[in-house]
Amino acid sequence: MRVSQLLIPTSKETPNDATLASHIFLIRGGFIQGVGSGLYNYLPLGKRVLDRVRTVVKEELDRAGCQEVSLGFVTPSSLWIESGRFEKYGKELLRLKDRKENEFVLGPTHEEMMVNLVRQTVKSYKALPINLYQINLKFRDEIRPRFGLMRSREFLMKDGYSFHASQEDMKREFDHMEETYKKIFTRLGLEFRVVEADSGAIGGSGSKEFMVLADSGEDTIVVCDDCDYGANIEAAVRAEKTCDVEPPEAIYARFHTPQTSTIEALSDFFKVDPFYLIKIVAKRALYDGGESRIVLFAMRGSETLQEVKACNAVLANELVDLSEEELAEAGLVAGYMGPTKVPEGVEVIFDAMLEDATNMICGANEKDYHLVGINLKGYEANYKDIVAVQEGDSCRRCGGKLRYTKGIEAGHIFQLGTQYSKPLKAEFLDEKGKSQPFVMGTYGIGVSRLLAAIIEQHHDDKGCIWTKESAPFAVTIIVSNIKDEAQLALAEETYAALQEKGIEVLLDDRKERFGFKMKDFELIGVPLAVVIGKNLAEGSVELIERDGLEKRVIAADKILAEVMGCL
RNA sequence: CGGAGUGUAGCGCAGUCUGGUAGCGCACCUGGUUUGGGACCAGGGGGUCGAAGGUUCGAGUCCUUUCACUCCGACCA
Q1: Residue A432 within any structural domain of the chain
Q2: Domain limits at A510?
Q3: A515 and A555 inside one domain
Q4: What is the pLDDT of residue A204?
Q5: Is the pLDDT score of A90 beyond 80?
Q6: Cα torsion angle, A387, A390, A393, A397, sign
Q7: Number of domains, chain A
Q8: Strand B bases, protein C-beta under 7 A
Q9: Does the pLDDT at position A460 exceed 90?
Q10: Which distant-in-sequence residues (6+ apart) come within 8 Å of A101 by Cβ?
């Protein structure tokens, strides 16, 4: 491709809303163009990268025995109502009506559609297992789209679904997909980590995320320094935690504690380590049909609530904050809430760490009063793991120190079981002629997000540095002075020769100055550049690798061999 | 959803307080010079000032309504 004919609107200026390297360089390099909140157009260069990434994904999946299909983007709501997700998925689901007032949704993920496809076509165990996938647009009406392609509303995703006659076979495929995903991310040149994860809105049990490691990642992951344990903070576990400080021995009593509505103040007031205080976080848990209830989450004062774990503990769709008015209406006092003697209609969940805890201090559910000498030994209650693992906690597997790191969720695989096949009545006949629901797995890769992830991991202050398998072109030929006939002639000759060899080559034949073209090369991030410039007079040209920007002077008649050697 | 802010040329912005000819930089077009690190000179094109309504002789500017976009937050009760 000749740059003079390529639609490639590069810019010196950083868009004012872009903060992440990937967002800045993808826009400045003319890969994408913003068209609305969380909506992007792909320009020729961006489309090429997208296609290359997509090709890697497709090749590995096809090699792993998966079959590509393409499902409708607009989905009848009836399927979503059948599965029960129409309400559960919440506001991220964009709903729309056609001219006849029929309701549809724009697919944010396609379990329903794929189950529907398979239930109509697969009737026998003999046709199993089967693994179908598509690489298609998705739409999620995010609360707050940001960071360019990282969190957009419309995005390209590979979503795969496998169907099995047994749990064991599904697990086998799950492991197989984990290996396949590792190959995909490795081929794309990404540094990543496979971690245990929460299953979120998709549901099911046993899920793993593929995290591309980057400081700008939106997810916090907990990793062990000594073993390969890794988990999303939403699902991380740790070894039991104790406290070295002596517990405050006291007999049960009600204590006047004015102006101590925070854990910190309470800790100061009683001169007690927060470990021995009970912290309450009150939330409103939302359920289907607009129902909701107030839940108090009780944990040690040294801990912090992990909202996803908390949400799972009460099987809610979502947890939202409460205003002081709402608390007052429910008979609760902010800053003085306790897990005992709660008003009617308020649910309490205890963190598992509180089981059999003694010598605790908690709120009295009464303004300006706390209770001391609380003893939970043998106390009957609902104990669940609802707190976040903290840095420095011990690894449950090996006892090593856990620490936080940041990751970009680029892939997620789930063991679904019969979560969707049951409500959607997707069944097959087994060897005994008995009807059984399909056992399913589901596997996703954020293809458009991968472009952002690659740049987050591979860039410098000048621009993008695409990896070998993701680059829009393999090499670019820069003609320093387009009016120099010798330079242009050699460039044209080289361009034709590389094309002949089937190499994706770019020829920068624009009537621009040298510096301008170099800046563009650095911004766009093609892995290799051949600079044909003034030292052609001495019979040599330059080879520049984008990663590191190292220059090498080579003989002009050796270009082809040298370039081929670098690819 | 809570808080803050912004909408003026393709992009980045000034002008709004104090109403009176629509501006600047980049980009773009024409001509010329220039060609190893985002050149220079000269000329030029491009605007329903987010939208609707109002006040006024006159509104980018004042008033009302509305839409869009962006940023911060949504764990310690």
Answers
A1: yes
A2: 475-566
A3: yes
A4: 60
A5: no
A6: positive
A7: 3
A8: 1, 11-13, 25-26, 34-39, 68-77
A9: yes
A10: none
